[in-house]
From TrEMBL:
EC numbers: 1.11.1.15
One GO CC annotation: cytosol
Stated name of the protein: Alkyl hydroperoxide reductase subunit C
Enzyme class: oxidoreductase
Keyword Oxidoreductase: yes
Assigned keywords, A-Z: Antioxidant, Oxidoreductase, Peroxidase, Redox-active center
Family label: Belongs to the peroxiredoxin family. Prx6 subfamily. Belongs to the peroxiredoxin family. AhpC/Prx1 subfamily.
Statement: the UniProt record of this protein carries the keyword Oxidoreductase: yes
Native source species: Enhygromyxa salina
Domain Thioredoxin: 3-159
GO process annotations (BP): cell redox homeostasis
Length: 210
């Protein structure tokens, strides 16, 4: 059964390149990203894992822990890590989960029923500190992900979780945001001060975190 937004992210214990990991305990009070890749020693995956390693300071700044997963054994993960560092210029610096029995892949519905059943699709799950799933993305095996976009969505998720705003199309941190429709004009004025009304349902205020 597919995991939906608002569901509790299933917990699991697994072997990783950084030792055994209990997912919920490892997340603690942090946000989390769990992402799968189809197979070790494949070109697109190699570039993705190198990019995630390069972006670790950005994830750390947002209090986000990242874990990757594939259905290959841990020995392959350790061997592949050398290729990632050699070709991408950044060593693997986050846990890579080994799931050779496909238990976690099936738990998170990462194997498409019409795809090669030995490969996971490129799934992404963003998980809040309360362990609920806030974002899901699924890419085909042939398309590498844009992790800058994933960082952008995390910025939006963290902003909208703490303020009564939504983020408009193509929003980036620092851009103006939208007052949620459930907030009255009077309450919006009390909370934000002045705001721009384009339509009664479309009201803009500056990013309160900028």
């Amino acid at each position: 059964m597919a995991i939906r937004l608002g569901d509790t992210a299933p917990n699991f214990t697994a072997t990783t390149t950084q030792g055994e990991l209990n997912f919920h305990e490892w997340l603690g009070d942090s946000w989390g990203i769990l992402f799968s890749h189809p197979k070790d020693y494949t070109p697109v995956c190699t570039t993705e894992l190198g990019e995630v390693a390069r972006l670790k300071p950005e994830f750390d700044r947002r209090n986000v822990k990242v874990a990757g997963l594939s259905v290959d054994p841990i020995e392959d993960h350790h061997g592949w890590a050398g290729d990632i560092e050699e070709t991408q210029g950044t060593a693997l610096n986050f846990p890579l989960i080994a799931d050779p029995k496909r238990e976690i892949a099936n738990l998170y519905d990462m194997i498409h029923e019409k795809a090669n059943n030995t490969l996971t699709v490129r799934s992404v799950f963003v998980i809040a500190p309360d362990k609920t799933v806030k974002l899901t993305l699924t890419y085909p095996a042939s398309t590498g992900r844009n992790f800058q976009e994933i960082l952008r969505t995390i910025d939006s998720l963290q902003l909208t979780a703490n303020h009564q705003v939504a983020t408009p199309v193509n929003w980036n941190h620092g851009d103006r945001v939208i007052v949620v429709p459930s907030l009255s004009d009077a309450d919006a004025k009390q909370k934000f001060g002045e705001f721009e009304t384009v339509k009664p349902y479309l009201r803009y205020v500056p990013d309160p975190t900028a």
